Structures are given as structure tokens and as C-alpha cells.
């Protein structure tokens, strides 16, 4: 596999002011091409350190991607380092990027400053990757002595992300990357160790060409990624499809999607198909379920609203939960979860409603209802169903797990109600 | 300044499956001691690569901290690398850590496996940092030939975090770190460039001993950190206090707290002091404001609940917004925001209510109400006030900014209402 190194530049990473999310994004995208990231290095805004590090890694790796170290106030450091490194001697004003910079200044209602204009200055020896989302252009160098591909990208995540497709295309065109065939199956509700046990025989039967990776994520579930490197594309695809259809047979409803599907995207697809609407009643999850459902644009046709009923009084007054139920069974109970879902469905006038009530921790647990206990209910036309789970985790992780568990429960209920 | 290098170990980082948040945490903590992180390196679970990298960086830096690469299935790789690196020849079973492991297994209701027991195996040459939150212990080595302090910490963030105080203590005891005095003032509502302009004269007047850092964060605002390295502790403190009190004079209500204060922690403090309760009505923020207010345990005495009224119907039915107001002014308007706040205050029976209604984007903008427009209102006993902001950002960033802006608006209203 072709190896790559990512180098993130910026004092703000080294003092812990920002978390580097760019590297994970780039790693995932390169991985899809069959490129393996072997090392990620973060260094500060120091010209000599940038030069030394880049000299070292462009020597070791055929692909080097830097992010950050560009921007109106520190542009010159990284660009001068790149000039020295690539033995270029001149910069020129790239008119296309300058046009973008002028547009951005105009939109923000600010004058074009020298600092901003100079962001369009680039070494003559590079190919420019025009940044349409921001002012700092990406740059692509071929370091001829070493045959290394060197990319310099801006550090702002959505600007960087917008340039990655060009980076991938340049890598594929310049290096003979192996043909790579992937298929990702997304599961929810079974822990990694249990999933590995269930899939033990199937895994043993996989031909050596297929590599399998377990990619767990508390919000999404476990992604199972099958990859075949090299070989004929259509043969590899056929091979992977054969084994993935076996997977569907073994795992059934544990599988909820493929590729980048999430619980919420899958749910929305089903609800749109059926023309149904949804509301939410949350206690311990405190608004996270609603947040997830509204994180993508365009959910307003489906999601009508949610009630964050953190206190018992609000469970009663907003959702019409019977106060005697809370007195008799407590707020964390099957009965309360069901009344919350029924109440949300009525007040928001939706086809379905989900509710969640539990103990996220660290306080509030009892021997009968320890921290990590969650009751979830789903109400629909003429029915309400509920279930209990107990998780082990800290507050943050419990809130994530509770929320995803609630979305998954609705998914399963919708599936069963169709049968 | 003493320099350090962080090395995160694990294939899961290099394939982009997880984002490395540990490095930022450790960097911030070391920074407080006056230790500067000069480089962060991520490498895979490969014994030779671990040895090579650690040999290289323990040569270059007086402090090296590794995280990850421990855990039941890959323990042996990192530990064997550490054995080779430190020329140790033996491991022993640490009884204290074994006790923790046994407790954890018991609590999870699982048998103690060999894999789990072996996590208590540590090189004889290390000092053990007992991990009470998980099974993998931290380790501390003094590499005598180079006088380097080498720490190996588990990769799970809350386990790693629980060991950092011990790491800091060992650093202070073993290296003559400079006396360092910090003070952090937290501001909200003024952009970095504007803040720099306001503070220009004050910054110029700072004595050379005081270093100033701007640390912006979209949810928290801008932290201004003053640091004095070396010198007498009480003199440094007095010096910093003199200049920070000037800062209070210049910035006034732009300042909302110190150190690790957040908008929500500051708000809760005020509301607890006054014995007041709060509710929320959210449209475009989709539950984020409620999520923030419930992210810490113990908020239930103050925060009674929130309504996520994503549709116009739910604004009307849940909060009693007059349908004519939405028809005449639209849902993103002063009038609608104010009715939402008044409605939330009534249905949740709280002393105060905040509302937010806007256009998070990317769709839904108009020339009059472009993407990034937010109306915020605060309702209290006998009053309702509101304000508009327009931000430039993508959906995710807009939702963050809108939510923090709403919390900050309540903070300011509470401040003024006290006068």
C-alpha cells in the first residue's frame, strides 16, 4: 500500500487550543483510495521547523499533505518554507484565487487589505488548488528529486475538505494507486466483542483478498468495512457483494445501512418514504435527540419538534404525564417513558414519537436504577412500546448512547410495523 | 521553556476512525506548568515503529508522553516496545492495578480473563501510575542515559485525564520547571480582531514579563490568558492582577468569567444565587441550547425544560405563539422570538425563558433574512427583550454561535436587571 504522512501546522494545535480534526478526515479519504497514512505530525508556526520536518517526511513518504499554517497573519512562514523546500525562487499573484478573495471581502463588507490580497501569492513551481470557500489557496508540488507529491491545504476544516477531492484525483493520476474496492455495512445494537463472536465462522470463511475492519462509533454503531486491494474491479465487487449478502443473512436487522448512512439518515429515508412525521420527548438526553434530528438541513418536513422535559412538573404540564405514574413508578420507568411518548405524539400532532428517560449520571443512580439506566418508548397510531437498557459509561457517553439507542428503537419498530 | 513531545499510538487514529483529543488536553495541562509541547506525533500499532519513534523523540525532548497502544488486545506491542527502549528485562504483576481490574470485571459481571489480568503486568523499571478508571495502568520511566522523562498513558480520554495530575506532579518534582503564573479572563460577544483593536493601547502598556494569548472558541468566546514565567510568585500574581483589573475596566460586561468558566456555568451560578429557574424555546438551534444546559450533572434545580419547536404548528400549539404573528412577520422575527420566550416561560412555569429562531442554513435564506440571521429573546417577570444578529458560517457553526449568543444575551439581561 502506498504510504502518506500528514503534517498539521499551527501553534494553536500545540497549545491545545484546537483539536486537530483535519487529520482524521484526510486519513479516511486517503484510505478509500488505498493510501495508508503511516504518521501524523503536528508542529508549530516556525519556519525552520517546518522546513526540517517537511524535508524529513518528503524523503520518507511518497505523499505528504500539510494543513494549516496559511492565513492572513502567518501565510508568509509556511509559503517561505515551501519556497525553500522546493527550491522555488518566485511567487506570483494567482488571479483566480484573487477573484475569490475579492468576492469574499465584498460579501463581508470589508475592504481588500494587502494581507488579504497577498494570500493569492503562490510559488511559481506549484499547481494551485483554488479555494472557493476561503481566502488561502491550496498548493500542489511535485518534488522531482524524490518523486514525492506534496500538498499544502488551508487549516479551516470546511475549506480543507472542499479541496480534498482534487487532492485525491491528483494522487490517483500521479501514482499508480492500486484498484481498491470497498463496501461498508453499518450495524447498531450489538457490542464489538459480541459481533466478532457472531461473525467468527463467516470471518474464517472470507477469502484472503477480502480484508475486514471493525470501525466502532458510539453514536453510529459499528461499521464493518470489507476491502479488496488490486484485482479486477468487477470481480472484486462481485466477491464483496457475495460475502456482504451473507452478512445480511447472518445479522438481519442489526444492519441498518451502508457506507455513510447514520441512524438518523436511515430513519429520515423511511419516514419520507411513508410520508410520516416525528416528535421527541426527552428527559436525561436533554435535547440531544432533537439536535441530531435537526443537524442536517431539510428535516423540517419530518421532524415537528421536541420537548425537553427535565423536571417532573414539565413532564406533567407539557406532555400530560399522569402525576400518579411518576409517584408510583418514578420518572425513570416503563410507564413514564410510554406516557411521555404518547404525550409528545399528541401535542406535536405527529405520526410517531420517541421518548427517553433515564439516569445519565454521575449522580442520581440507585441500586434499582443505576447510572446508565434508560427507558425508551415509541408511540404510533394505536400503539406504544418500550424497552430498557443499562449502559456503563460517563455522563457524556451515556447521553450519546441513550440518544442513538432511541433512534435505533424507532427504526426497529418501523421495520416490524411494516411486516 | 522546557519542551515536550506527545506521541499518540494507535491504528484507529491513522485510519481516521477516531479524532485525537488527548493531545489537546495534555498540551493545555503542560502549558499551565510552563512546559511547551513542540511536536505531536501519531503512529500505528507497530512495535518497530514505536521503538524507532520513541528513541528519536526521547533523544530530542526532555519530556515525552505517549497515549494509547495499551488495552487488552494490543498491550504487548507497546509494553514490549517500552521494555526494549528502556533496556528493561522483566515485567511483574502490579497488585494494586490487578485489584482495580478485578473490581471492574466484577462490576461488569464478567470473568477475569488472562488478557485482562495481564494488563497489570508492567516493566520493573517503571513507576506505575495506577489507573482507577480503567484496566490499563500508566507508566513512568526515567531514561537515565538521556535524563528524559517518559510517560505512557492509556488512550481512553477519561482514563488518561485522571492520570495527568500525577504526570504534572512528577514533571514538577523531576525537572526544574519555571515558576509560572497564569490568569485567564473569559470574554464573549466581540470578535478577535475587534478585541485586539480595543486592547491595543493596553497591550502596548504590558510589561515584557507578561505574555498575552488570545484563545478563541466559537462556543465559549475568547479567553485572554496572561502568563508570567519565572520571578517571585506573589510579585507575579500582583502584577497580573493589576493588569487584569485594568482589563475589567476596559472591557466591562464583555468579560463574563475567569479560568474555565463557560457561559452556562456563569449563568447557573447567577441563577442559583438568585434562586431562579429557566426554560428554553428553540427553533433553528434544534435542541442545542437545552443540550448545553443539561450537559453537566445537577442542573435540574434550575433548568426545567425546553421546547424544540421546529415547525410553525408546534410554535403555535406548544408555546401559544399567535398564528397571525407568524403570518405577518415570519417565524424568524422579533415578534415570534418574543412570543416564543413568553410562551416557554408560561408553559414551563419558570422565572426566565430564552428563545432562538433563525436561519442556520445552508437553505432557507432570503435577501431580508439571509443564512446566519438569528433572533433571540429573553422573557422574565413583566418584561420581554430581544435582539438580532447575523453570522457568517456553515450550518454547524451557526448553530453553535446562535446557542452561545442566546446564553450570553440572558447573562447580560440578568446583569442589567440587577442594576
Question: What report would you give on this structure?
Answer:
2 copies of one chain form a homodimer. Chain A is an alpha/beta fold and 419 residues long. Chain A is built from 16 helices and 17 strands. In chain A, the strands form 4 sheets. A 6-stranded mixed sheet of chain A has the order 2-1-3-8-7-6, with helices on both faces. In chain A, strands 14-13-15-16-17 form a 5-stranded mixed sheet, with helices on both faces. The longest helix of chain A has 24 residues, at 395-418. In chain A, 43% of the residues are buried. Chain A folds into 3 domains: 2-174, 3-Layer(aba) Sandwich (Molybdenum Cofactor Biosythetic Enzyme, Chain A); 180-258, Alpha-Beta Plaits (2-Layer Sandwich), CATH 3.30.70; 263-418, Maf protein, CATH 3.90.950. The interface between A and B is large, with 78 and 78 residues.
- State the helical fraction of chain A: 40-55%
Low-confidence stretches of chain A: none
Which quaternary structure do these chains form? Answer: homodimer
Shape of chain A: globular
Strand order of the largest sheet of chain A: 2-1-3-8-7-6
CATH superfamily of the largest domain in chain A: MoaB/Mog-like domain
**First CA to last CA of chain A: what distance?**
45 Å
Strand content of chain A: 25-35%
SS content category of chain A: alpha/beta
CATH fold name of the largest domain in chain A: Molybdenum Cofactor Biosythetic Enzyme, Chain A
Average pLDDT confidence of chain A is 92
Which pair has the most extensive contact?
Answer: A-B, 78 and 78 residues
Amino acid at each position: 500500500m502506498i504510504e502518506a504522512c500528514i503534517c498539521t501546522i499551527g501553534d494553536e494545535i500545540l497549545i491545545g487550543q484546537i483539536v486537530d480534526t483535519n487529520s482524521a478526515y484526510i486519513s479516511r479519504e486517503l484510505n478509500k483510495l488505498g493510501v495508508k497514512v503511516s504518521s501524523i505530525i503536528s508542529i508549530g508556526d516556525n519556519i525552520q521547523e517546518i522546513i526540517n520536518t517537511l524535508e524529513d517526511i518528503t524523503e520518507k513518504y511518497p505523499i505528504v499533505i500539510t494543513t494549516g499554517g496559511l492565513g492572513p497573519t502567518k501565510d508568509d512562514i509556511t509559503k517561505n518554507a515551501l519556497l525553500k523546500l522546493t527550491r522555488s525562487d518566485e511567487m506570483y499573484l494567482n488571479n483566480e484565487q484573487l477573484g475569490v478573495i475579492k468576492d469574499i471581502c465584498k460579501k463581508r463588507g470589508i475592504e481588500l487589505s494587502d494581507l488579504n490580497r497577498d494570500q493569492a501569492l503562490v510559488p511559481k513551481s506549484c499547481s494551485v488548488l483554488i479555494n472557493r470557500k476561503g481566502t488561502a489557496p491550496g498548493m500542489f508540488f511535485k518534488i522531482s528529486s524524490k518523486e514525492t507529491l506534496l500538498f499544502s491545504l488551508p487549516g479551516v476544516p470546511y475549506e480543507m475538505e472542499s479541496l480534498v477531492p482534487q487532492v485525491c484525483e491528483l494522487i490517483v493520476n500521479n501514482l499508480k494507486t492500486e484498484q481498491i474496492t470497498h463496501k461498508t455495512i453499518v450495524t447498531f445494537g450489538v457490542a464489538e466483542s459480541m459481533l466478532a463472536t457472531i461473525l467468527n465462522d463467516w470471518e474464517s470463511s472470507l477469502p484472503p483478498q477480502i480484508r475486514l475492519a471493525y470501525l466502532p462509533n458510539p453514536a453510529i454503531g459499528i461499521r464493518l468495512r470489507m476491502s479488496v486491494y488490486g484485482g479486477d474491479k468487477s470481480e472484486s465487487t462481485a466477491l464483496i457483494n457475495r460475502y456482504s449478502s451473507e452478512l445480511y443473512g447472518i445479522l438481519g436487522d442489526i444492519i441498518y445501512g451502508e457506507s455513510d448512512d447514520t441512524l438518523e439518515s436511515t430513519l429520515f429515508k423511511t419516514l419520507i418514504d411513508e410520508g410520516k412525521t416525528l416528535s421527541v420527548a426527552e428527559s436525561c438526553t436533554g435535547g440531544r435527540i432533537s439536535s441530531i434530528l435537526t443537524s442536517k438541513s431539510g428535516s423540517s418536513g419530518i421532524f415537528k419538534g421536541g420537548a425537553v422535559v427535565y423536571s417532573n412538573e414539565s413532564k406533567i404540564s407539557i406532555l400530560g404525564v399522569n402525576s400518579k405514574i411518576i409517584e408510583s413508578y418514578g420518572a425513570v420507568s416503563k410507564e413514564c417513558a410510554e406516557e411521555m411518548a404518547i404525550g409528545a405524539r399528541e401535542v406535536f400532532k405527529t405520526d410517531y414519537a420517541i421518548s427517553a428517560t433515564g439516569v445519565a449520571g454521575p449522580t442520581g443512580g440507585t441500586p434499582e436504577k443505576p447510572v446508565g439506566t434508560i427507558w425508551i418508548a415509541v408511540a404510533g397510531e394505536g400503539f406504544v412500546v418500550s424497552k430498557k437498557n443499562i449502559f456503563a459509561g460517563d455522563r457524556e457517553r451515556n447521553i450519546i448512547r441513550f440518544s442513538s439507542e432511541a433512534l435505533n428503537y424507532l427504526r426497529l419498530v418501523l421495520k416490524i410495523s411494516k411486516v
